[in-house]
């Protein structure tokens, strides 16, 4: 009998629509004539889900008794006896009631599949066995019902049912998932935006991993060869040629195939110059790699393969991408090339990708190898023409008599050719060999090293002078070309450096790292001192080389003014590099000055903020404190007046007004003093372990009775706080919530445990606060909306957040689903946290 097929609808959390999607699929199959039955579906009282059950055949559930209660479970025997083509089985990870044939529902599904019945099922990502610890660290809840990962991986189809956290919370707030009495608890605990986002990421990554496994199996079965990577660090070796853009894009595609992939483009220049490539091309490639999310690096090294491998291993790279060589076929006689050398020496820990491009075998077109202003192949041809050419001409002229003048012109042409190809030394060699051959074979007396006619001596001297002159011109042109390329490269690097520094994109450490990397140094440090006799101090450092305490201890020092120097260790750079080093040193000084100016500006801003608070404090004292004082004085003056006989009721009312005014004064002065303590940093919390149910009720003393509903379980872990500061913070938050909450709707104060923390949420149903004002309401002397002047000086929430941060907690504002504002106070828990059932997974009630 053929085994049935399993299709699973996978979701990130309850309520995303897994059961709804499964029932919709069942309706589509029924419309196509497929025999489809509902073996077990749990609608959880959701009207839309229950509506989709209409029109589908349902197998009655089995009733099982356990501990005096009756539970409904899937009747496995009835489904097997009915033998439908497709069976719908909800909640694959469900644990069956004791007494069932199988302990888990996924085991029931295995029996259905073995009987040849196709199954449609549902499961949430948090129920996968391998993700239990991860889900617990995110949500604070340990899932008791799990399903082995292999069961889900063996499914023939896994369909992801996805929904954004915001949409799911709206669905929850509208009552489309749970009953209204469970909505607030679920939104405050399991259905927090951060929890839902993390669970959604887990689901997406799990499905992506399964897709990759299917593709790997497909390629294996069909002998498809391709490169796939995940979380890779890919180094792209650039030569400065036009093929670099192709390599960068290819590396970016490799990085995109795995989560967390990173591309590092590196150009390695030889020590005789900062670059041997087109600066314009390098600028374009740098821009391209940065646009694709990668980074560009410039490294100095004479042995390019070794430098590239050292960089890759230092960056913990897993792959290297290189382009096929642009050398022509005959040039391989000088060596195997960079790509072959890197592949041979990469070892088992580095994969090397050789990428084809349009520039293959078209020649380098770039200035070249170590120390040579003319290319190695060009110099080789120059020596061949300068030494071998005269000998070949002598053999040819032995058969033909052209006369001494023509013979000299032929040898002179070879000398000019050697000069054009190889420069000065091949030309000198050609002139020497040619003059000796002319003297011996063609100048009377022949076959002797003497010259009989003085005119022939003049001709030979002219011959040598012309060869040397042409060679000198070629060598001078090569040196000028080399200098122009170097200066152009320097200007490109300095322009890029100055632009970054002026835009403020580079910090001091980043700039020093760029200096170290560009010149191949072990370390770079910026040293300074206050005076000529003061000791040196390090303002910034990069690299892992030996620490340098004085400029004299470095391999190279570049002074910046009288009391600052750039010190580098590792090697002694060429003299021509010091000009660029001086520019780097000057820019480092500018970056350091800018950083200090920014720090001074921050201090000035703090002083200005203090002045603003003091000004606001004076305004508060001038108005908000005078109002209750005026009321108290008026009431006292009335009581002391001998002209009026006050009734007991009037006297009691005046005394009550005095008491209310004094309470307002005490509250306002207390907040002002607390804000002053926070601003001056004199708050010293006395942290100790305490239960929340001992502190939170004490914070309700200043609010009307019945205006707050408490939900603080006694089973919560203890918290490490200062009880006095926590009480003041809670009192201010609760008073603010009561102030804006509509009449008849009490403020909810609920506490819950989440992993290693405890959260207290103060929920009101007032007008709420827009997103752009959520941070502003925590600033001192800020009132939101049209709060009256008598509502306070606007310090309550500022003091509450300050006290919360002083005891190691956080206080943030969130929207209350359905309208209102929720203040979330998070505190550090002490001791073990008891396991609890998530609000999103209510226990099934017995039938």
In short:
Keywords: ATP-binding, Kinase, Membrane, Nucleotide-binding, Phosphoprotein, Transferase, Transmembrane, Transmembrane helix, Two-component regulatory system. InterPro entries: HATPase_C_sf, HATPase_dom, His_kinase_dom, HisK_dim/P_dom, HisK_dim/P_sf, Histidine_kinase_KdpD, KdpD_sf, KdpD_TM. The chain is of the alpha/beta class and 847 residues long.
* Low-confidence sequence ranges: 224-230, 363-372, 786-793, 832-847
| Overall geometric form | flat
CATH class of the largest domain: Alpha Beta
Summed up, the domain count is: 5
SS field, number of helical segments: 24
**Amount of helix:** 40-55%
List how many beta strands DSSP finds.
24
Q: What would you call the structural class?
A: alpha/beta
CATH superfamily of the largest domain: P-loop containing nucleotide triphosphate hydrolases
Beta-strand percentage? 15-25%
Could you tell me the mean pLDDT?
Answer: 78
Q: What is the fold named in CATH at topology level of the largest domain?
A: Rossmann fold
Indicate the radius of gyration in whole angstroms.
42 Å
Termini distance?
A: 37 Å
What kind of sheet is the major sheet? 7 strands, mixed
CATH architecture of the largest domain: 3-Layer(aba) Sandwich
């Amino acid at each position: 009998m053929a085994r049935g097929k399993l299709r699973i609808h996978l979701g990130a959390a309850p309520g995303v629509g897994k059961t709804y999607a499964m029932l919709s699929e069942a309706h589509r199959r029924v419309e196509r004539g497929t025999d489809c039955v509902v073996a077990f579906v749990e609608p959880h009282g959701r009207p839309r889900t229950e509506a989709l059950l209409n029109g589908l055949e349902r197998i009655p559930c089995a009733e099982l008794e356990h501990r005096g209660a009756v539970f409904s479970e899937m009747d496995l025997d009835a489904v097997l006896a009915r033998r439908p083509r497709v069976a719908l089985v909800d909640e694959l990870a469900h644990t069956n009631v004791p007494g069932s044939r199988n302990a888990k529902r996924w085991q029931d599904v295995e029996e259905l599949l073995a009987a040849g019945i196709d199954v449609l099922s549902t499961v949430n990502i948090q129920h996968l066995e391998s993700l239990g610890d991860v889900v617990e660290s995110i949500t604070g809840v340990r899932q008791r019902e799990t399903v082995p990962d292999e069961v889900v991986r063996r499914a023939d189809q896994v369909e992801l049912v996805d929904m954004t956290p915001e949409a799911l919370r709206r669905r929850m707030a509208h009552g489309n998932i749970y009953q209204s009495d469970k909505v607030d608890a679920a939104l405050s605990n399991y259905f927090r935006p951060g929890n839902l986002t993390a669970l959604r990421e887990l689901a997406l990554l799990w499905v992506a991993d399964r897709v990759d496994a299917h593709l790997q199996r497909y390629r294996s079965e069909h002998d498809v060869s391709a490169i796939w990577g995940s979380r890779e660090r890919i180094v792209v070796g650039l030569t400065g040629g036009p093929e670099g853009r192709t390599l960068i894009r290819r590396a970016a595609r490799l990085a995109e195939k795995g989560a967390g992939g990173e591309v590092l483009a590196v150009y390695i220049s030889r020590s005789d110059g900062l670059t041997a490539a087109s600066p314009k091309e390098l600028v374009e490639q740098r821009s391209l790699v940065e646009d694709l999310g990668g980074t560009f690096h410039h490294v100095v090294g004479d042995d390019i393969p070794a430098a590239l491998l050292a960089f890759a291993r230092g960056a913990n790279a897993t792959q290297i991408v290189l382009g096929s060589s642009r050398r022509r076929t005959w040039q391989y006689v000088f060596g195997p090339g960079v790509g072959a050398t890197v592949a041979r020496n990469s070892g088992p820990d580095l994969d090397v990708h050789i990428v084809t491009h349009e520039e293959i075998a078209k020649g380098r077109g770039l200035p070249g190898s170590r120390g040579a202003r003319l290319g190695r192949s060009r110099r080789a041809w120059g020596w061949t023409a300068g030494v071998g050419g005269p000998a070949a001409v002598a053999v040819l002229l032995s058969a033909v008599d052209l006369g001494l003048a023509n013979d000299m012109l032929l040898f002179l042409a070879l000398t000019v050719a050697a000069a054009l190809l190889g420069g000065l030394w091949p030309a000198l060699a050609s002139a020497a060999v040619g003059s000796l051959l002319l003297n011996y074979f063609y100048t009377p007396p022949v076959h002797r090293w003497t010259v009989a006619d003085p005119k022939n001596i003049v001709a030979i001297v002219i011959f040598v002078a012309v060869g040397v002159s042409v060679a000198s011109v070629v060598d001078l042109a090569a040196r000028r070309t080399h200098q122009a390329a170097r200066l152009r490269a320097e200007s490109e690097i300095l322009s890029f450096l100055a632009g970054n520094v002026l835009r403020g994109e580079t910090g001091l450490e980043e700039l020093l790292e760029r200096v170290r990397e560009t010149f191949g140094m072990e370390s770079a440090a910026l040293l300074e001192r206050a005076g000529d006799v003061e000791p040196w101090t390090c303002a910034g450092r990069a690299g892992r080389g030996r620490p340098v305490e004085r400029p004299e201890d470095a391999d190279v020092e570049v002074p910046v003014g009288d009391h600052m120097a750039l010190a580098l260790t590792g090697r002694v750079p060429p003299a021509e590099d010091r000009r660029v080093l001086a520019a780097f040193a000057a820019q480092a000084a500018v970056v350091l000055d800018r950083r200090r100016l920014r720090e001074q500006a921050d201090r000035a801003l703090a002083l200005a903020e203090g002045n603003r608070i003091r000004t606001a404090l004076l305004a508060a004292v001038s108005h908000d404190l005078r109002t209750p004082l005026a009321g108290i004085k008026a009431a006292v003056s009335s009581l002391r007046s001998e002209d009026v006989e006050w009734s007991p009721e009037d006297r009691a009312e005046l005394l009550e007004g005095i008491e209310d005014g004094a309470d307002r004064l005490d509250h306002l002065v207390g907040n002002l003093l607390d804000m002053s303590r926070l601003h001056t940093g004199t708050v010293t919390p006395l942290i100790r372990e305490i239960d929340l149910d001992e502190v939170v009720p004490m914070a309700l003393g200043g609010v009307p009775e019945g205006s707050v509903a408490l939900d603080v379980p006694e089973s919560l872990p203890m918290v490490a706080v200062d009880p006095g500061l926590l009480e003041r913070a809670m009192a201010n938050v609760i008073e603010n919530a009561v102030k804006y909450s509509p009449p008849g709707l009490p403020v909810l104060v609920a506490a819950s445990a989440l992993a290693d923390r405890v959260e207290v949420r103060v929920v009101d149903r007032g007008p709420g606060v827009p997103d752009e004002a959520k941070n502003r309401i925590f600033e001192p002397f800020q009132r939101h909306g049209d709060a009256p002047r008598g509502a306070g000086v606007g310090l309550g929430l500022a003091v509450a957040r300050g006290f919360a941060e002083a005891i190691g907690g956080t206080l943030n504002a969130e929207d209350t689903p359905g309208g209102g504002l929720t203040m979330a106070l998070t505190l550090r828990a002490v001791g073990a946290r008891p396991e609890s059932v998530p609000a999103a997974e209510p226990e099934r009630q017995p039938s």
